[in-house]
Design goal:
Number of strands of chain A: 0
Distance between the termini of chain B: 46 Å
Shape of chain A: flat
Distance between the termini of chain A: 43 Å
Strand content of chain B: under 5%
Radius of gyration of chain A: 16 Å
Radius of gyration of chain B: 17 Å
Oligomer: heterodimer
Order of helices and strands of chain A: HHH
Structural class of chain B: mainly alpha
Number of strands of chain B: 0
Chain lengths: 88, 100
């Protein structure tokens, strides 16, 4: 196992831990925060995969994922604005 | 030698991200969590991207990684600000916190 594969493994563990926060977060904004954190970690994972397999076209996928993740987070945040707060 | 420096930067970035994940569980209220997530995630991402740029050498891929770094450096605080603004405008205060 090379160093980059071990890094990918550690980032996968971080994603699983943040997913626990998304599942048991008290409010919808905690879940949105976890979604944002997972999005940043997935971009990092795609770049590591591009370095391991030595295929530079995967960087375009990471670029598009960054743009779409930002647009999705802002759209959901604007959509749930001024709705009533839910505690479930 | 230069690869060893990149690996050291990568370990530092993984430590930053570990602090972010721990802080996401340790803090009690929402605004502390969003603060720790925003700052630590951005710093960990920047450090990891510098390590990747060093690892890929002087090439076209290094310029693309720098472009992604610039993009995320702008959009990550913006999206965190959008989440905090949405929570604040919806009347979410710390007193209402009932979670763990």
């Amino acid at each position: 196992m090379t160093f980059l594969e071990a890094t990918l493994f550690v980032i996968a563990i971080y994603i699983a831990l943040v997913l626990v926060r998304v599942i048991l977060g008290p409010t919808i904004w905690d879940r949105l925060l976890g979604l944002n954190a997972i999005s940043a970690k997935i971009i990092m994972s795609i770049i590591i995969l591009s370095l391991i397999t030595n295929q530079p076209y995967l960087l375009d996928v990471a670029l598009v994922y960054a743009l779409l993740g930002f647009i999705g987070t802002v759209l959901i945040a604007r959509f749930i604005e001024k709705k009533e707060t839910s505690h479930d | 030698m230069i690869d060893l420096f990149a690996y050291l930067l990568m370990i530092i970035a993984l430590l930053f991200m570990a602090f972010g994940v721990i802080g996401l569980f340790r803090f009690k209220d929402f605004y502390s969590r969003i603060l720790i997530s925003s700052k630590i995630e951005t710093v960990g991402f920047l450090t990891a991207m510098i390590a990747f740029t060093i690892l890929s050498g002087i090439s076209f891929a290094a310029m693309k990684i720098l472009l992604i770094t610039l993009l995320v450096m702008i959009t990550n605080p913006l999206s965190t600000h959008a989440i905090a603004r949405s929570a604040f405008l919806s009347g979410y205060t710390i007193d209402q916190e009932t979670g763990p």
